């Protein structure tokens, strides 16, 4: 979407006011207001302060305005930190020959740059002294305002001007063309200025410099361009005034002294379809200029198809709303020296030393556009020939010469096109040349050429080519092009031009710009998504356009969810998608780019928008067949597998996608990718990612295992031992396959070896360690396999991983699970854990991450598994401070019912060792448990675990009375009343009551409560209760 400011500048303003921010802000605002008050004058204020205009908008304003007014204060032209300071503005104005007026506001300029270019005898100057200000609201001198307005009005009417060589000429300055271009048209030695008809388009200037088609020495150069007349021109006559000019000129050039006596007779007739002939005769050079009008649209008589879009009715190339006026046909004969130089360059340009060509451009024939064009062509041919000649050209100063030619001959489309072509070939594979082009303002020059010659397709194509090459060099260049308006220029080319080769170059350049994060949103805001998709739809068979287009869409999708959603809703579901992944797509690069873009969309906004598209067997079948058709292309497999992984990634809600992929042969395609491109790490990594996503589903995991997926994963991990992504993804796939019991005992041993090898190689990589521990957990669920895995050194590897990544909860959680899984039912493995220092390590994890629910839960589980049935390990845990760690975690995570339940269970097992029981009691364990039971009174499992923990803590009379005094009896009775049908709660409550009733005083309190009745009710209504009724009866509470 184009901003209002750029819409305002698209047609250019009349006056652009350039000023030094710190000196003339108020005066500039006053002058701006005075000019705008005239009504017919539009003015732009180059305000570069924060929040005002962007650098790009100021550049655009200066470029498109008719007149620049410079507020000449002492600091004007100084170099500051601003990206568009007055030094850069002055350079841009001077280098582009912009008409200007200087408002002298000081005695002398501080910078030599300003003193040189703004001298009073060189440019029109008006006085307005800063010291003459009488208030904070200055008023510009009336004469200054009148002079500026008069200058603007003069540009809209025919007037006599004098060329740089003293020849008088009648020039009609159209409001659509810059005055600088008009003056450039007369800057040709030994030539007469012609009568120029107003034209609304911005194509080729018909001057003596626009010469082409020289076949032999002294041949005539003809420029012909014809456009349609408007409907009005066929009914109304065009009238001009006959003019006769006699001029005696003594013209001295650097190399030629010509005394010229010129008689110019110009006659114009009035007719609805007329021919006007102008004969200009000189003593040394004869120039015949013929201007003819036509009411029909035709191609150029001299093969100008490189510069005009043949067959274009001006709706696709140029300004579609411009009224088309008659354009002239001009025949020009060049001077002998010019023709000799051009003939030599055409015959021997490839072998002429580059330094001589540069000298010809910059000194001998700098004034001749025709010679400049021939020199540019010769430099381009040399640069294309070899790298050595490219280097020689750059060393000879070719870049300077080419940019100077483009600036000096801005009106010649052929010079612009050939110079861009030469720049592109010189910069090929040469970063230093690219830097030189950028450093000398080449980006701005190229963009200006493309804006000025909008209908010259060769200029547009070569310009796009240069921009793409410059942008590919580094990120700074990409951003600079965008800031200077490059995005808008490229999108305009793609909108207006219908030629595939021009659009392809523009799309390639836009793709380079899109690789910069700062440009992606700009492309979207300028309407780039719609433009790119339109071009792609217009040129479906063009594989390059499709490839660049998909690349642009993919990068833009990463800029914002809105952009990604737009692309997902259009390109990713429509004809473009079918074209990209259909089996009739012959270009693998096109297919790969589309798959990459789809993946970027999914990564930005998730896979939900595309699930509906690919959940159908038809579309999934197309995708998988496209991967099969281009099976020899690694990029297609890499991005295809990445897309499959992204589509199938997630939880159970995506099981339909996983099943769809598996049902349509996705497993075979993925495994084929791993086999046929086993030497490509990226393909293998992405294929493992796809298998990992599929194996979340049990059916798909079984399919992967049955088709040899486990063996393929192990082979990949073996081949890429030092590739972190392969090892991480491989461990994850093995873990998910093992979780669904799809790994045989024999394969498990190989899997354990692969996982342990990955842990050894990537000991400092937390992601690999975490996935490896998860895999060991899944493998060790069978006791026999657990013993095998532990026997290979798995325990020591897991403990070491916990110690090396002690602050990483993502490692601590799966590592505790692995120790828990391996040691759960094996005293031998528990001893290995103690020997390896696992007790201290697990307790340290619980203390360090006491606020992390996952770590606390898994570490409590590991402690419980290690101390169950093993007194020696329980003692080791007691020494490690396990009791204090468990109680601290319960307090820290008091709102987590899962942690409270697991911690109570752990306290029960620890309290089997009297030292742990006494420590738990002394550190307030009773209060912690009771608080958890009260907090989660409606959770039956919590009530059962809490009663069990209280019973375990009641080891002596003091402890029993303390539990009763702290409300243990009341809490247990409340649990029994609330959960009457819960066997676990009733059983554990009765056991706990029996434990504390060993104390006679406590027994009496229980007997006096409603417990006997509740116990009897439970006994008579529930089966399978685990308490001993005889023990309760003996204690008098049943």
What does this structure look like?
By secondary structure, the chain is α/β, with parallel strands linked by helices. The chain is built from 54 helices and 13 strands. Helix content is 59%, strand content 7%. Helix 31 runs parallel beside helix 34, helix 33 runs antiparallel to helix 34 (724-739) and helix 34 (724-739) runs parallel beside helix 36 (766-779). Among the domains are: 5-153, Rossmann fold, CATH 3.40.50; 606-741, Alpha Horseshoe (Leucine-rich Repeat Variant); 924-1037. The model is unreliable at 1-10 and 158-331 (pLDDT under 50).
List the helices and strands and how they pair.
Elements: H1 4-9, E1 15-18, H2 25-36, E2 43-45, H3 55-64, E3 67-72, H4 86-95, E4 100-104, H5 112-117, E5 125-127, H6 142-154, E6 159-162, E7 168-171, H7 179-184, E8 221-224, E9 243-252, E10 257-266, E11 275-281, E12 286-292, E13 329-332, H8 336-348, H9 354-364, H10 369-385, H11 387-395, H12 398-408, H13 413-427, H14 431-439, H15 442-452, H16 457-471, H17 475-483, H18 486-496, H19 500-514, H20 517-525, H21 528-538, H22 543-557, H23 561-569, H24 575-581, H25 588-605, H26 608-614, H27 617-629, H28 634-648, H29 655-663, H30 666-676, H31 681-694, H32 698-706, H33 709-719, H34 724-739, H35 745-761, H36 766-779, H37 783-791, H38 794-804, H39 809-823, H40 827-835, H41 838-848, H42 853-867, H43 871-879, H44 882-892, H45 897-910, H46 914-922, H47 925-935, H48 940-953, H49 957-965, H50 968-978, H51 983-996, H52 1000-1008, H53 1011-1021, H54 1029-1034
Parallel strand pairs: 1-2, 1-3, 3-4, 4-5
Antiparallel strand pairs: 6-7, 8-13, 9-10, 10-11, 11-12
Helix pairs in contact: 8-10, 9-10, 9-12, 10-11, 10-13, 12-13, 13-16, 15-16, 16-19, 18-19, 19-22, 21-22, 22-23, 22-25, 23-25, 25-28, 28-31, 30-31, 31-34, 33-34, 33-35, 34-35, 34-36, 35-36, 36-39, 38-39, 38-41, 39-42, 41-42, 41-44, 42-45, 44-45, 45-48, 47-48, 48-51, 50-51
